[in-house]
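Note to self: user wants both folds in one dump. Writing first protein now.
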Amino acid sequence: MTDISIPPTPTATPTRSLTERLGNELSFVPVAVGLIALFLFFATQSDVFLTSRNLSNLLVQSTVTGIIALGLVFVLLTGEIDLSVAATSGVASVFMAKLVMDFGLPVPLAILAGVALGGLVGAASARWVTLIGVPSFVVTLGVGLVLNGIQLLLLPRTGRYNLMNSGVDQLAATHVTGPMAWGLVLCAIALFALVMGSTWRSRQRAGLSASFNAGVLLPVVIVALFLVGVLVFLENQRGLPMPVILFLALLGVMSYITSETRFGTYLYAIGNNAEAARRAGIKVDRIKITAFAIAGGMAAFGGILSASRSLGVSVSSGGGVGGGALLLESIAAAVIGGVSLFGGRGMVVGALFGALIIATVSNGLNLMGVANEARLIVTGLLLVVAVSIDRGIERLARPG
């Protein structure tokens, strides 16, 4: 009797719907399309909008909000939120200024001390959340008010530290031009392509659905066009501003951490199901503390960069009491950029597009002569719409 062997049925690679992909690796695409639409709209409303000088101001204007939003992404991915980031940016910048002006500490060391302070504040907040079990929005709201009080105590009687000619001002005043600027842009594109390619290969090795066009080619083309376009416009001015370079460098580092490291995988796992992650052996509390520390450090650096731009720190640094518009815009930038408030979904690059949308709306409305009240209304509406879309995508992507 002849044995007839039946070949094993090949296991099909699971495919994901467009809705699921929009909630993950393609979350930045609708935001990028919206940004282009805003650019086209404001270009028709003002002849000044697309000038190199205005675009340079717009990009620099978006860096502080964008850097703070980058840190918030880590916290949001775990399903938590930090309402103290604006206050952290304010107290860290004042602390840095005090070290430079009153104690004569070298500027690089003072900046590192300020960033370290921000990281400690974030880690302490997260430790309280994980130890006591109090919701993070309550703890960080209280910490923010405490930091507002500390900020007032650190300021001199005049209520302001003037940082002109202190060395701190050079952080925002430096520009890079010519071959060095083009080299930085090309290196940034190449590194981004390597990270996206590595992520694509990792998904293939794991047997997951991975599209080269959607997962590598499309993001790289969008980022390359954006960076080259920015440089072409800014070459007519003074070149690439240092705040923009620092923002893009931090964006690259944070993108690598979330997409290519075990820590980044744990962030998504905790955000999707913290209890399942804990049972899988992930140290959930330690990951959350680290995420909050990163958010605090990024907030501190954003505040220091803001102090360098404004040539001083005062009571209003960090958005003033309660965080003001800075807190709203930082959260809005992360969420508008496609990062879910409910945890586990989104990409770090979304913070770039979210911050640019916030800055574009503000810049465009100002050029149109619209009152500041309208800018706040539009920003608030964008945040509500972004969260609503995110919730809709989550429900559509949910099985059954």
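First done. Writing the second protein, which came from a different request thread.
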Amino acid sequence: MSIDAVVDPEAPAPEPVARIGETRGERLRRVLSSRAASVVAIVIAALWTIPTFGLFVSSFRTDADIRTSGWWTAFADPNFTLDTYNYVLYSDSQGGGLIVNLVNTVVITIVGVVVPVAFAAMAAYALSWIKFRGRNLLYVGIFALQVVPLQMALIPLLSFFSKGLQVGGVTIMPAWELSGVNTIIQVWIAHSIFGLPLAIFLLHNFMRELPGDVMEAARIDGASHSQIFRKVVLPLVTPALASIGIFQFLWVWNDFLVGRTFAPGEATRPLTAVLGDMAGTWGFGWTRLPAAAFIAIIVPLLVFLLLQRYFVRGLLAGSVKG
């Protein structure tokens, strides 16, 4: 038997398991972009979405149907209604009137995102491109604040708001004595304080990767630090700002502990506090909880979908130098 009969010269050569010169990152990227990886990702996404889909279906079911059968039986005998949404948003009865709490959450979240991200951007620029004594020590101190648990700061901060600040019997800051709707200021300050360390740390890493030649050229043209920050740095770090803003938005919107501690009044309670009562020990509104929970979900979902492009760009920013 000849060699030509055994080996077909026109047959394609088998693909090697590991390509010559392929780095570990390239090999991992090739594996993750394969058809099998795509199928696994689709299966995980479907399993992850099933509970949310069940919550969505249950939110349109009647009280009697929720008590007697599971959400998956709704398609055999459809009986959907919007009465539950109308009740939880506008009813004055127990477990209703969430439109006020929804507005409170929106007001808390807008300020709780804009203020820390704005201050973090200015602080990150100063720590990255303005030389002053103690800059590295200050950055290490800000980084170290991330390890402080949120729960440890609640009582001191609450004491600061209610009793003020006294050192050696000398009053440095009097008691705030806030009440009613004004207590929402305490929530804004608390969210800003707790969100600043991580935001400064992440933005500092992004800004340090900006090309120094651009900064030097702006200084040669006579631009001040404020002009460089507004006209050069902010447009370049917009994806990073969007990513950090999304993270801060989700954290503030879904927060329960801070809103419950610093805004306990009925007029300022966020939506999460009411949801906690509905699903609490007594569970007085558990059949209306799917509709209320989906109302709390829909806004963060829309924000993420609208800013998804900037979110992905922000995650990739700084990963490749040059």
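Dump finished. Worth passing along: The first strand starts at residue 165 and ends at 167.
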